[in-house]
Amino acid sequence: MILILISGVGLALSGGFANGLGHIGVLKVFEKEGIPIDVIGGTSMGAIVGGLYACGFSPEEMESIAGEVDWDKLFEKSPPPITIFEKKTFTQGMAEYTLSFSGIKPVLPWGVNNGFRIENLFTSLYLPFSLNPELNFDSLFIPFFCNAVDLLTGKEFIFHNGELVSAIRSSMSVPAVFTPYRMNDYIFADGGVLDDCPAESVSSYRRPVIAVIILTQPLDTIKNSVDAITQSGILYGNRVKIEAVKQADLVIPIYYPPLTTMEFKRAREFIERGEDAARKYMPLVDSLLKAWSVERVNKVAVEEKRRVFRKHVRYPVLRNLYFENTGINPVVIARWVEFKSGDIITPSVLDRTFNSLYKSGAFEGVRLKPLHYSRDSVDITLHFFNKPAGFLKWGILLDTWAPGLLTLSYGVRNSGSVYTGIVFGGSYGDINSLYTRFSFEEVFKRGLSLSVGVQWSERLIPGIGRYVVFMSDAKASFASGDMFMEGFVEKQFNRRVLSMGLEVRNYRGNVPVCENGRDIGVKLEMEVPGRSVYSYHLAKGHVLVMHGIWKRFFMLFGGYFYVSQGNVPPEKREFLGDIDRYLLFPVRSVYFTRYATINTKFSFLVLNTSALDYSLRIALSLSMSTCFIPSERLPLQVVPMIEVYPGYLRFGFTEKGLYFSLGKKFM
Asked: CA–CA separation, 73 vs 90, rounded Å?
């Protein structure tokens, strides 16, 4: 005979991506109603929520965390900062795409998202428990466990102890979405592969068992065959999930609309759905408690228990810090780490450290591995995941009023003690070119980069014809935060032209499509006196480009100028159509020695959705601009547009007819 001690309920929380945030709402109602919880078992998002609750977080605190997390940043596949020579694309107004290589072999990702930033967030949130490699999960505020699946053996694995972050990260490793988690001889994937809600495992701990599962809301009406197929899939999927928790004594389903599992920005709404479901099933919960003679508890008593638990929780002091799997000088890495031996490890310290390490641009990911934990101190190893050595970039640009452009480049980088890189590339279409560039960069301080390059290019220039340039250049670049500065010297081989210049730019905004940001910069250039057949000076740049978004409304304001004096080489001349980033002046055959444009654009986002590191935005825009040239101002251009991102697809309705572009960056 098996004797089960009854003092509370066992709670099983299913997976569900963003919909799984509804578990917070259920816990919120359970605490308010005094439902005692003795053990929590979770899968995927259920493991994340259950782990936070087990570590002493209140439902209100978890709700606050869900609202404060920058989900877009969290789900980035890799850190956005990259080295200077990788930033300098063939044409800055063109969208490019990258594929990693190991030698000549493509490096295909294990998942859409590598999960490093999520893992780093967990390490900070679950402090100090995340720093104990031998943690017994039963010793937490609420005993806790989570499940995952070992892909090698095909068996379910239950985590009762060990590294808490590793356990939860393993449980949420949805195949093809997140990279599987490797631990010793195991390769773990999401526990939902075999058991989306571990009700049966919870029942071995405690009875009665309440299972909370995420289901899809069936369609209200069936209008066509697509609706019929969709409804059939929804009904079948819901039935499978309900059948899988038959070991539970009570099942609380939370229904969500189809295709909302990735919409983390709707956290507040999803949590409310969990609250509504818990309230709806509260009469059945009452009956279950009476049947098992489970007494309710006072919310004040739960809060007091949490207060006492937290009172004994202390952040440990760092004893020793080690670096693993990197060729970078440890002294250099130590500059990025915000703690040293003798310091207390706090969440804010870890957050600043992870951000600093990613800003270096040298790593694909960072993993914190605790060693030799005691209540008051810990040894830590930072394990680094390096970027693949090779990368292939390509881009395509199509434009109604100009020849197309195709670019392709292959580069090799070395992020050891000294960052070096070499890239080979070319383009075909509007500009035919071949080029190579070698870079030597002191990337560890986000500082100085020295590079040299050789380039051959051929371009059709209005009034001149095909113009060939064969040149070499040397550049010294400096980057710090949002500021970029570069000095350069260029030498043409096929013509007697020697020029030098300086570019300064201040830029903020990772994705310049309906995001808050700015872009301010100026480029000054002149010939080297006595060394060139041309005698000229020129200055150009963005005087001010500011863009911001409020709810679904987006506004951009900016200005551009170009001023030249003397005999400017043909390849240095700019035509209105060439610098037109906003589809304002489709004129390519007129060259002015000086002009200035003022641009304003208003957009309304008819669709703005994202999933992991991918987003889809469709905007209805109205672009207005004017251009000042010597002695006159060109007429105001008003162009209604439809803009689609990703792909940088744009349709404009102009006086000359329909305009179309693909791959041309816009803001």
From this structure: 27
Gap between the Cα atoms of 53 and 212, Å rounded: 15
Nearest residue to 42 (alpha-carbon basis) of 9, 13, 11 = 13
Tokens 């609420």 correspond to 142
The answer to whether 427 touches 406, Cβ cutoff 8 Å, is yes
Residue 293, number of CB atoms within 10 A of its CB: 8
CA angle 56–38–305, rounded 5-degree value: 40
Residue 454: burial class (beta carbons within 10 Å; 0-12, 13-18, 19+): middle
Mean per-residue pLDDT, 173-190:
92
- Which positions ≥6 away from 156 have C-beta within 8 Å? 147, 148, 149, 191, 194, 195
Beta-strand ranges (E) seen in 481-535 are 483-492, 497-508, 517-527
List of E strands, 347-416: 363-371, 377-386, 390-399, 402-415
**Integer Cα distance of 655 and 87 in angstroms:** 36
% residues pLDDT > 90 (the chain):
46
Continuous H helices in 481-637: 576-579
Q: Is pLDDT at 108 greater than 70 in this prediction?
A: yes
Q: What is the token pair recorded at 21? A: 């945030």
Long-range contacts from 302-306, C-beta under 8 angstroms, 24+ separation? 302/31, 302/34, 303/58, 305/141, 306/56, 306/58, 306/141
**Can you tell me whether residue 303 is helix, strand or coil?**
helix
Prediction pTM value: 0.80
Whole-Å CA distances, 623 to 497, 620, 650, 657? 39, 10, 12, 15
| Band (79; pLDDT cuts 50, 70, 90) | very low
